[in-house]
């Protein structure tokens, strides 16, 4: 892993030589010498034998090499920072001439260059001594990996085959992962569905890695279980540092219809009362996954109804038997797999080619013995060996190097997990370790993870592919190797979010600390003390560490604050470690702040590549004009936070992802600035791949020049001025590389404009969206969300994006039935007709249409009375959701014929419609009742 740290230094040195060539004399030789030496060392370490990495003397040598590389990186970053700081000082001292460009001559830079020369020379001397010590104390050269090993070949393949197709990962739990659990499933179903009538607690108990969560999820998704607990179901993952509020919010999100604002305003007791009220008189199932503390059930039980005649259940998974005892549960102890089931699971994971390999029988006894019936170990080992060559030597080498003993207790699995980690190609190791920075049991957004990897410098350039495409390949490979699990997928099959198993997270944190990749504050004994060697700090618990006096002057490159408290004395955002590359601040709600004004000093962080400020709820974040100094910024992310952004943002040419859903440009360029700097607009951000903002004058000021953003893949604009639609549409029509487009109008202006016009006719004609015809050239566009009035739908399918998979219409106010036309789109799988998208009374899906449609959501179609599906239409529909369509009184004709239908959600519909479902006799209607829910849909396809 040290080779990753050295790679950063080599890259920095190369950039210094190319960008600051005019500064060098003697110093250039020192820089090149250091760069070449580190490159040789990096190559040596990359192919060093994993066995020697555990040699104490070798580890000491590697640590010293790493520290020298860190010193070199610090020298370079501080030089660049001081150079820019001096330029800014010169600018401030010449304010009366600030209309002139600020230049620094060599005399101004000479002191900094001399200091750079001295410090680089010192690093070279240190490195030379370390290399001499290697021979002086008799260290032998570690053996290189054998040529042709899968580790090196995987790396070579990934670098030489940039054209290869992206891997598509399934989002559901694989059936192969529940081998040997069929009896467990039936036994637990019996405990949940039968037995005592009063509320009961069932616990699944066993060590980490046995598959407790997998088993619980299988039962939770079982059709019989879903039908039985028709009063409400909730799944909540419990971390070691849980809070009762997070627990109640998790349940409330599943079983109540409270608005988000009220959920966050309510006290714990009030929130608990609402949960109790929602579940009272109903048969419910609550799953508490991975419980570590006996207080969880003790605190929660009082908020859950305990009627004696409903047979409600609470299902707990835990590693601690005492928790099951304290909850007075019916405890089910999950056992290790026997030899036959272990082997069956391994064969399912290792792949069909290996399963039929003649040489496999030699390894059966050893593999079964090594894994000791632990499913997690079997899955990880199977994923590892599935990537190895089918040769006896290749497999023998893997199995011989496993140091894993059952007698070591819960950590016994870490040996085999560490083996899988050690066999990762060098470019994947820091990417895997970085997954440990996220809180336990959290879903990790793939897009965020990828952007962080890029900002940290973990992603290596490869041909003409973008860094994001390469990083997505990294993620797919980690998933294939069973190091990361898929949580959700996108409409095109790519990974949307992922998660990491608790044991693997423990491994990542342990190795991350060992390799000095990052430090998690839960491993720091004194929250006020910051280790001087820390390069990346993750704060989950000891939030007082952010006020440490050592923080500002540290060499931190990354600071990630998860759920940090904010109060009147909290002043971190007024001071920053000067060399930061990543700043991620996710703060908890506070009643003290109506907004947060970020310090102007943030503009000094010239190395910053990733900035995320979120978690302030309804508060407004204000960025200062000095953000123009963040010349290397690639990502600005405000989540769902309202944020005011100055127009100086347009100076940041390295920006790749401007992701501010509720962000608006709060200022405009003055005439004086335009005279000095020329026109400043978004059109110069040619690296942009993602642009998500509120619309505004910034679009008009730049003459709607979106067409110049040729790398743009996602465009999301909200609160669009109706009078800007035509110019905006012409601009969007040029962005043929778009994959995701969202356009939502400012409805207040629309309604005001209509009412102000003469009867609405004149203004209405002017405001209508031109239509979809120009999207026919958008061959990459797979997701489209239109929230603007349109004249009508084109009748020819050639006028639509040819690969459209997901379509959402909102406030389009269509008068003609859209199903006749939309049903002919060949690739449409998800269709959402939201409020006022259609204002007619009848809607019919014609025969043979919607061949691939899997998901249909209709909400707020207040005029719709009759919905029907003709024979052979929607043959693959799996989910139907009807919400707030109050005039539909009859069950949609043709639904009974849909054999693949798995879920129906009817929420806020007429009682007549509910009565049809509940009272109509017949076998087909029994099936419909089994899959119908009256709870609010939770499907993420609505987003």
What is the strand and helix layout of this fold?
Blueprint: H1 2-19, H2 26-46, H3 56-93, H4 106-136, H5 150-160, H6 182-193, E1 200-205, H7 212-220, H8 223-228, E2 232-237, H9 244-255, H10 260-265, H11 268-279, E3 284-291, H12 295-300, E4 313-318, H13 321-326, E5 330-333, H14 339-350, H15 352-355, H16 361-371, H17 375-385, H18 392-400, H19 412-422, H20 429-434, E6 444-445, H21 446-456, H22 467-480, E7 485-489, E8 495-499, H23 502-514, E9 519-520, E10 536-539, E11 558-564, E12 582-587, E13 595-597, E14 610-614, E15 620-622, E16 635-645, E17 657-665, H24 671-677, E18 690-694, H25 697-701, E19 714-720, H26 725-732, E20 740-745, H27 747-756, H28 761-767, E21 783-787, E22 806-809, H29 819-822, E23 830-833, E24 842-845, E25 855-859, E26 866-869, E27 879-883, E28 903-907, H30 911-919, H31 923-931, E29 932-933
Parallel strand pairs: 1-4, 1-5, 2-3, 3-4, 9-10, 10-11, 11-12, 12-14, 13-15, 14-16, 15-16, 16-17, 17-18, 18-19, 19-20, 20-21, 21-22, 22-23, 23-25, 24-26, 25-27, 27-28, 28-29
Antiparallel strand pairs: 6-8, 7-8
Helix pairs in contact: 1-2, 1-3, 2-4, 3-4, 6-7, 9-11, 14-17, 17-19, 21-22, 27-28
What does this structure look like?
The protein is α/β, with parallel strands linked by helices and 943 residues long. Helix content is 37%, strand content 16%. It is built from 31 helices and 29 strands. The chain has a 19-stranded parallel β-sheet that branches. A five-stranded parallel β-sheet has the order 2-3-4-1-5, sandwiched between helices. Strands 6-8-7 form a three-stranded antiparallel β-sheet. Strand 7 (485-489) and strand 8 (495-499) form a beta hairpin. Helix 17 (375-385) packs parallel to helix 19. The two termini are 39 Å apart.
């Amino acid at each position: 892993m040290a080779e990753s740290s050295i790679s950063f230094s080599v890259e920095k040195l190369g950039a210094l030589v190319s960008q600051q060539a005019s500064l060098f004399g003697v110093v250039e030789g020192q820089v090149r010498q250091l760069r070449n030496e580190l490159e040789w060392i990096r190559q040596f370490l990359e192919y060093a034998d994993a066995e020697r990495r555990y040699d104490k003397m070798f580890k000491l040598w590697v640590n010293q090499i790493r520290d020298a590389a860190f010193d070199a990186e610090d020298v370079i970053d501080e030089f660049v920072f001081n150079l820019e700081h001096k330029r800014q000082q010169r600018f401030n001292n010449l304010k009366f001439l600030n209309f002139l460009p600020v230049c620094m001559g060599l005399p101004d830079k000479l002191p900094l260059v001399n200091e750079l020369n001295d410090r680089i020379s010192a690093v070279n001397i240190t490195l030379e001594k370390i290399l001499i010590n290697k021979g002086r104390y008799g260290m032998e050269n570690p053996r290189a990996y054998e040529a042709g090993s899968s580790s090196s070949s995987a790396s070579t393949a990934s670098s030489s085959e940039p054209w290869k197709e992206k891997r598509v990962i399934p989002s559901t739990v694989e059936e192969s992962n529940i081998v040997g659990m069929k009896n467990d499933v039936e036994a637990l179903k019996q405990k949940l569905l039968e037995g005592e009538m009063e509320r009961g607690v069932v616990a699944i108990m066993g060590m980490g890695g046995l598959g407790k969560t997998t088993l619980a999820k299988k039962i939770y998704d079982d059709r019989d279980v879903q039908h039985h607990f028709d009063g409400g179901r909730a799944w909540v993952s419990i971390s070691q540092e849980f809070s009762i509020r997070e627990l109640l919010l998790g349940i409330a999100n599943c079983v109540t219809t409270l608005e988000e604002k009220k959920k966050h305003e309510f006290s714990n007791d009030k929130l608990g009362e609402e949960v109790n009220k929602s579940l009272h008189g109903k048969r419910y199932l609550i799953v508490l996954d991975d419980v570590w503390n006996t207080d969880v059930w003790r605190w929660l039980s009082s908020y859950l109804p305990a009627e004696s005649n409903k047979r409600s259940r609470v299902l707990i998974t835990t590693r601690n038997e005492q928790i099951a005892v304290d909850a007075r549960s019916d405890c089910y102890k999950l056992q290790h797999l026997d030899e036959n089931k272990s082997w069956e699971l391994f064969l399912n994971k290792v792949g069909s080619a290996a399963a039929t390999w003649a040489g496999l029988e030699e390894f059966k006894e050893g593999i079964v013995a090594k894994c000791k019936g632990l499913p997690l170990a079997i899955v990880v080992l199977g994923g590892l060996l599935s990537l190895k060559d089918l040769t006896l030597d290749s497999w023998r080498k893997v199995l011989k190097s496993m140091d894993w003993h059952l007698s070591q207790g819960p950590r016994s699995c870490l040996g085999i997990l560490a083996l899988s980690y050690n066999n990762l190609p060098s470019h994947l190791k820091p990417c895997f370790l970085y997954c440990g920075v996220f809180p336990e049991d959290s879903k990790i957004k793939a897009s965020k993870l990828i952007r962080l990897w890029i900002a940290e410098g973990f992603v290596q350039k490869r041909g003409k592919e973008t860094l994001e495409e390469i990083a997505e390949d990294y993620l797919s490979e980690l998933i294939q190797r069973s190091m990361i699990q898929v949580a959700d997928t996108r409409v095109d099959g790519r990974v949307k979010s992922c998660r990491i198993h608790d044991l693997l997270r423990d491994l990542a944190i342990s190795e991350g600390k060992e390799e000095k990749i990052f430090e998690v504050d839960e491993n720091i004994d004194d929250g006020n003390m910051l280790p001087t060697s820390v390069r990346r700090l993750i704060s989950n618990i000891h939030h007082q560490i952010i006020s440490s006096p050592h923080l500002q002057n540290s060499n931190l490159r990354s600071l990630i604050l998860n759920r940090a408290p904010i109060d009147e004395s909290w002043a971190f955002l007024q001071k920053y470690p000067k060399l930061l590359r990543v700043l991620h601040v996710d703060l908890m709600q506070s009643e003290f702040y109506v907004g947060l004004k970020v310090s102007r000093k943030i503009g000094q962080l010239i190395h910053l590549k990733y900035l995320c400020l979120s978690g302030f709820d309804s508060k407004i974040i204000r960025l200062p004009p000095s953000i123009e100094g963040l010349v290397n910024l690639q990502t600005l992310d405000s989540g769902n936070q309202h944020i005011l952004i100055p127009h100086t943002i347009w100076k940041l040419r390295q920006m790749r992802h401007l992701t501010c859903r509720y962000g608006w440009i709060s200022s405009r360029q003055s005439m004086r600035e335009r005279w000095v700097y020329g026109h400043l607009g978004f059109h110069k951000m040619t690296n942009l791949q993602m642009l998500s903002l509120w619309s505004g004058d910034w679009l008009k000021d730049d003459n709607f020049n979106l067409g110049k953003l040729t790398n743009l893949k996602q465009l999301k604009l909200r609160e669009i001025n109706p009078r800007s639609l035509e110019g905006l549409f012409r601009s969007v029509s040029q962005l043929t590389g778009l994959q995701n487009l969202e356009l939502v109008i400012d409805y207040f202006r629309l309604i005001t404009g209509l009412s102000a016009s003469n009867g609405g006719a004149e203004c209405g004609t002017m405001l209508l969206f031109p239509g979809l015809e120009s999207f026919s050239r958008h061959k990459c566009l797979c997701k489209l969300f239109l929230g603007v009035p349109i004249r009508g739908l084109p009748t020819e399918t050639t006028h639509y994006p040819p690969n459209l998979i997901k379509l959402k219409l909102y406030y389009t106010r269509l008068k003609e039935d859209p199903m006749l036309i939309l049903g002919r789109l060949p690739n449409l799988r998800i269709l959402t007709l939201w409020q006022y998208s259609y204002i007619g009374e009848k809607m019919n899906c014609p025969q043979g249409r919607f061949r691939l449609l899997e998901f249909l959501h209709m909400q707020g179609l207040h005029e719709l009375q009759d919905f029907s599906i003709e024979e052979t239409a929607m043959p693959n529909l799996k989910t139907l959701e009807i919400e707030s369509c109050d005039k539909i009184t009859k069950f949609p004709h043709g639904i009974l014929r849909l054999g693949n239908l798995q879920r129906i959600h009817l929420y806020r519909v007429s009682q007549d419609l509910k009565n049809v479902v509940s009272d109509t006799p017949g076998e087909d209607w029994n099936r419909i009742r089994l899959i119908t829910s009256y709870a609010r849909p939770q499907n993420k396809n609505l987003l």
